[in-house]
Specification:
The complex is a heterotrimer of chains A (154), B (270) and C (260).
Chain A (H helix, E strand, L loop, with lengths): L1 H28 L10 E8 L10 E4 L2 E11 L6 E8 L11 E6 L6 E6 L12 E2 L1 E3 L4 H14 L1
Parallel strand pairs in A: 1-7, 2-6, 5-8
Antiparallel strand pairs in A: 1-4, 2-3, 3-4, 5-6
Chain B lengths: L4 E12 L2 E12 L3 E5 L6 H8 L7 E6 L2 E2 L5 H8 L2 E4 L11 H12 L4 H14 L15 H12 L6 E5 L7 H18 L2 E6 L2 H7 L2 E6 L2 E6 L1 H5 L4 H8 L15 H11 L1
Parallel strand pairs in B: 3-8, 3-9, 6-7, 7-8
Antiparallel strand pairs in B: 1-2, 1-4, 4-5, 9-10
Helix pairs in contact in B: 3-4, 3-5, 6-7
Chain C lengths: L1 H29 L4 H16 L3 H23 L8 H39 L2 H8 L3 H39 L4 H11 L2 H29 L4 H30 L5
Helix pairs in contact in C: 1-6, 2-6, 3-4, 3-6, 4-6, 4-7, 4-8, 4-9, 6-8, 8-9
The chains are: A alpha/beta (154), B alpha/beta (270), C mainly alpha (260).
Keywords (chain B): ATP-binding, Nucleotide-binding, Transport
Organism (chain B): Halomonas shengliensis
InterPro entries (chain B): AAA+_ATPase, ABC_transporter-like_ATP-bd, ABC_transporter-like_CS, P-loop_NTPase
């Protein structure tokens, strides 16, 4: 009977360690926070070109992460990209109506993310509204092409 | 009641691959007696037990135990039927991860809701019956072959079955443990009123305890009768087997071409 | 020619039949654990396949994490991107190496032992005698082992990842001098709980089922001789390894390859 007790203890510790390991992976490795994911609101923004932006990319304000890209789809009417942003609920009613959204790149070759900059309009954005003033991604090839054609025309 | 057969085997056919093992075996096994099934090695005696126990399904024919067809039962009913049977395997087949006590307690634990104290009493009673009450704490690996078989016997009778099947109980035993087993089988049969089927090719021991004997060879029942009757049987095949003569109608040699031709033929080819 | 085609056909039929038997076997054994007794049997098997496999899995995880950091660093440093070391170590472990390597180790350490154990029980007629006592060996012997393997391997995989990430940390941060903050923050920025950890766990669950299934089936279905047991044990390791690597490709294609 004693042997079975130590065995039970061993298995119990083993399973506990496994579950703690999973929690560790969640918190420390994937940076998951223990907040309920429901307290967000959504904004839309249309871009002429999103470059390499992917769903779940970060949305930042002044470098601070405030949300994620929830969805990206092609607008069939204007043929531009409609990006749905999921932002922290505490920002609802805080962002001015002329807030701009830009697609930025972390470093020279890093991942792309959306940066928001607030404007001065007293009216604010709420759930489901669209950001009008947007700035597309900088595509390296286009940049080089422009540079080269400028050189030629000079 | 005692004159109705407990087990009836009717027109049993069984083939494994291309070789036919049984071609119409007929047997009736009376209630409350020890019936021996004998025959040379390789005649499928163990297969016959497996057919009776419902582990194998015959190609034709049927096996009735107490009037019920073993092979027409659902899986659940078959397992229920097996609770009324005990089987002693050639190797003993004790569960190697359980102690002697737990091995004997195993059928009680799975099939009854008896309190622990009562299980303990029953197990010790059964172990006492086979003379191994003192070995209850040992593991199967620590037992000799004869002791393992006696523990297996205690386990087989743990649920007080009505039918016990013995598969070669005497094989590989020294004379003392052989004598012990012979005594045990006989005593248990009388004390508990069991129906026993003993499959064996140890003629001397088997004939001393059997009430009735079936001899099978070539897939059929070759002879049957009481031990005394078989002893004086005129059939040369029966007499060869019962008296243990090395050569006779059952040949000593595996079928082969002529010896002289084989030897000389091989030499000639070189 | 016709002979050859017929032989191929027969091989196909044999394969289908074996698969069918294995499927029926899984369905019958998977139905579960009866009551308190089943719980104890499961516990004992958890100890055997889980706790006793922990050492080999954790040590392997540590070394693999350390090697990843070492190899990754020499490549990343050429691009001046050594801060991405944490990201690289974590992603390769979580998505790929931890589920696969843990499953392969598990097949070698626990799977082969399961096959041999069940095979020996079959060879010594323990399974038959259990059946004659009126206990279904599928429920009593096979089911606890199947479920123990199914639960144990994902837990072992988690342990492998955790230890591997720490191994990478040891080499990368303590030895090679990657900045500690960027090791963790780059990792956190790029690892997604559902997409990376979750998919890795799904992989691990699939491998656990397949490896344990192959192991217990090979044990239950073998020819009960000593040669049969040794062959079945080898088959367990070979088949499980092939199944794990093959399934890994399929699962990776579905999860990360855009084949949804």
């Amino acid at each position: 009977m004693k042997r079975s007790k130590t065995m039970e203890l061993g298995v119990g510790l083993f399973m506990l360690a496994g579950i703690l390991g999973l929690v560790f992976l969640g918190l420390r490795v994937s940076g998951l926070t223990l907040q309920a994911p429901s307290d967000t609101f959504r904004l839309e923004a249309s871009f002429a070109n999103i470059g390499g932006l992917k769903p779940r990319a970060r949305v930042t304000m002044a470098g601070v992460t405030v949300g994620r890209v929830a969805d990206i789809e092609l607008d069939r009417e204007w043929y531009d990209a409609r990006v749905v942003l999921e932002l922290d609920e505490s920002l609802e009613g805080q962002l001015s109506r002329d807030t701009t959204a830009a697609i930025l790149t972390a470093g020279l070759l890093g991942e792309q993310y959306v940066g928001l900059t607030v404007g001065g309009d007293p009216e604010t954005l709420s759930d489901g509204d669209a950001i009008r003033d947007t700035q597309s991604a900088v595509v390296l090839e286009e940049l080089i092409q422009q540079f080269v054609s400028n050189m030629v025309s000079d | 009641m005692s004159d109705t057969p407990f087990v009836a085997v009717e027109g049993l056919h069984f083939a494994r691959g291309d070789s036919e093992i049984f071609r119409g075996v007929e047997m009736t096994i009376p209630r409350g007696a020890i019936t021996a099934i004998m025959g040379p090695s390789g005649t499928g005696k163990t297969t016959l037990l497996k057919l009776i126990g419902g582990q194998l399904t015959p190609d034709a024919g049927r096996v009735l135990i107490d009037g019920q067809d073993v092979h027409r039962q659902s899986r659940r009913a078959l397992f229920a039927m097996r609770r009324r049977m005990g089987m002693l395997f050639q190797s003993g087949a004790l569960f190697s991860d359980l102690s002697v006590f737990e091995n004997v307690a195993f059928p009680l634990r799975v099939h009854t809701d008896l309190p622990e104290a009562m299980i303990r009493d029953l197990v010790l009673m059964k172990l006492e019956a086979v003379g191994l009450r003192g070995a209850r704490a040992l593991m199967p690996a620590e037992l000799s072959g004869g002791m393992a078989r006696r523990v297996a016997l205690a386990r087989a009778i743990a649920l007080d079955p009505e039918l016990i099947l013995y598969d070669e109980p005497f094989v590989g035993q020294d004379p003392i443990s052989m004598g012990v087993l012979v005594q045990l089988i006989k005593r248990l049969n009388q004390a508990l009123g069991l129906t026993s089927i003993v499959v064996s090719h140890d003629i001397k021991e088997t004939l001393t305890i059997a009430d009735y004997v079936y001899v099978i060879a070539d897939g059929e029942v070759m002879a049957h009768g009481t031990p005394a009757g078989l002893d004086v049987d005129q059939d040369p095949r029966v007499s060869q087997f019962v008296h243990g003569e090395p050569d006779g109608p059952v040949p000593f040699h595996y079928p082969a071409t002529d010896f002289a031709a084989d030897i000389l033929g091989a030499g000639g080819a070189r | 020619m016709i002979q050859r085609i017929r032989r191929l056909g027969r091989a196909g039929c044999d394969l289908l039949e074996a698969l069918g038997r294995a499927g029926v076997f899984l369905a019958q054994a998977g139905v579960g654990l009866p009551g308190r007794e089943g719980w104890h049997l499961w516990l004992r098997q958890m100890h055997f396949v889980g706790v006793l496999s922990l050492a080999i899995v954790l040590v392997s995880g540590l070394f693999i994490g350390m090697v990843l950091a070492l190899q990754g660093y020499t490549i990343l440093v050429d691009f001046g991107a050594e801060e991405a070391l944490g990201q690289m170590v974590a992603l390769s472990l979580l998505r790929e190496l931890a589920p696969v390597v843990a499953a392969l180790l598990f097949a070698g350490r626990a799977g082969s032992a399961l096959t041999a154990e069940i095979g020996l029980m079959k060879a010594t007629e323990q399974l038959t005698s259990m059946e004659m006592i009126g206990v279904d060996p599928l429920r009593r012997v096979v089911a606890p082992r199947l479920w123990a393997g199914f639960v144990a391997l994902p837990l072992l995989t988690v342990g492998f990842s955790v230890v591997g990430i720490y191994g990478g940390y040891l080499v990368g941060v303590d030895w090679l001098g990657v900045f500690e903050g960027s090791y963790w923050s780059n990792m956190q920025a790029s690892v997604d709980f559902l997409d990376d950890i979750g998919n890795g766990m799904v992989k691990s669950l699939v491998f656990a089922l397949v490896v344990t299934w192959i192991a217990v089936f090979q044990g239950y279905d073998l020819v009960p001789t000593s040669e049969g047991i040794s062959r079945a044990t080898t088959r367990t390791v070979v088949y499980s390894s092939l199944a794990v690597l093959g399934l890994d490709f399929v699962l990776t294609a579905v999860m990360f390859g855009g084949l949804a």
